[in-house]
DNA sequence: TACCTGTGAATTGCATGCAAAGAGACACTG
DNA sequence: CAGTGTCTCTTTGCATGCAATTCACAGGTA
């Protein structure tokens, strides 16, 4: 069967012969179309360029990114699995919309999982306390007196801080579950909602966590982390008109292990 | 633009013109190639037809299922996101291999999440106790005297029992997280590893859970569920040569809420 | 007006073919 | 004999085009 098209596929990357004039994104083109698509679309969602409820058209995305629809589809399926977008058969994909109820679900889950992970990290004792301490101090610098100079960097440092603790818990699924669940608050651009007081308290918690993990005292670590998460929950809700306390379904202490004197 | 191929795509489903003689699967063909591929591949993995470490070739799967490689790729990406298979760029996809350590991770997570969910279910009080009770009794019938007559049905009933409780917790993410995490034990074909004694105890737990949720007494419900999960953990490990107790990292009681008299 | 019905445009679903990346075999070189 | 280049074969990655579905909207009927 003869095939007459000459350059059916171009030699390497950079898709179809004719390309629209607005340069395709793919800044740090690493040669993996699907990965690029995933990263770029995800960024656009988290940065708010694509707002909740907006439809993501495969064709439009493919053109703007500079790849064909195939890798875009793959990226969209991945984002669907992560819960950032919703997929309806034969209709397309739209950016997931979040409600206060979602926020409550997420924080009540965090308020169970993160303290537990923190306890585990204190128990295994395999955490690099110095690195953790460095992160905490770096955050102080980025947010002197509770006023952040760079919200993005602060968020990034905070994520690394929490991730480091969870990874020391020796339960990789725990770390995976938490990070899959806390995607949404990123959309909320968490730290920009903190009052200076709340932010100062949050940073103080970090230092206290370092101390509890250095001790190491699992009860202390778990308890500080629970305070930390619940305080964050309040800080975010308060800015949102929602002034009732975070869900009554979560008692003040969910998980207290008996006894064991401090130190 | 002339197009000479006649049946380039066949009118509806059922892929390419020439099809190998061994009938493609797609038993309950619902007309959605990607979904069919996902379901069939998943079944083959869970049933053990594709054993851990085996490579899943897109071409082979596509042919055996009776679709093209595109929907197979989509199914494989989905399974990757769920952790059932591993994907290596340009090399392919292989069935995930599990270790005792994975089992411990999963059960220690369950031992935190399911009791908490059970507490929530008892607190919201929105659970259909009668339906739950019916499931518990049905399980008695399928496993009279701790000897299952149909392991598959028993597993299915058990899954429904636990899912029903988690869905009553009013935290959809909790249900999602648990079900995404407990895929692996399915591979272990859990109930076939239970001794008659262990299975009897497990079924008794179910009835006790119904009672605790009917009361409703959140402390009781939470506590029974914790026993239930930890007992299951032991039952599975004991059959595996591993005779040490499930990870010391999880104290016997992870989450005890103070006070509140029974009833 | 309310309710079908049909037509067209936009968009996804899927099959296919080429190009590129690995894996293994084998000869060649130091 | 170990290391290295090259050749081939297998398999994935991606671009593309047709088919099918959905939606909006216009026109016909009660």
Characterization of this structure:
The structure is a homodimer of 263-residue chains. With 263 residues, chain A is mainly alpha-helical. The first copy, chain A, has 2 domains: 1-97, Winged helix-like DNA-binding domain superfamily/Winged helix DNA-binding domain (Arc Repressor Mutant, subunit A), CATH 1.10.10; 100-238, GntR ligand-binding domain-like (Four Helix Bundle (Hemerythrin (Met), subunit A)), CATH 1.20.120.530. In chain A, 56% of the residues lie in helices and 4% in strands. Chain A contains 10 helices and 3 strands, in the order αβααββααααααα. Chain A has helices at 33-46, 58-65, 69-82, 100-124, 129-142, 151-167, 172-181, 183-188, 196-214, 218-238; strands at 55-56, 85-88, 92-95. In chain A, strands 1-3-2 form a 3-stranded antiparallel sheet. In chain A, β2 (85-88) and β3 form a beta hairpin. In chain A, α5 (129-142) runs antiparallel to α6, α5 packs antiparallel against α9 (196-214) and α9 packs antiparallel against α10 (218-238). The longest helix of chain A is centred in the middle third of the chain and has 25 residues, at 100-124. Mean pLDDT of chain A is 82; it is low at 1-21, 241-245 and 247-263. Chain A binds chain B through residues 32, 70, 73-74, 77-78, 81-82, 89, 102, 105-106, 108-109, 112-113, 116, 120, 123-124, 170-174, 177, 180-181, 249, 251, 253-258, and chain B through 32, 70, 73-74, 77-78, 81-82, 89, 102, 105-106, 108-109, 112-113, 116, 120, 123-124, 170-174, 177, 180-181, 249, 251, 253-258. Chain A binds a DNA duplex (30 and 30 nucleotides) through residues 3, 5, 8-13, 15-16, 32-34, 57-59, 62, 67-71, 73-74, 89-92.
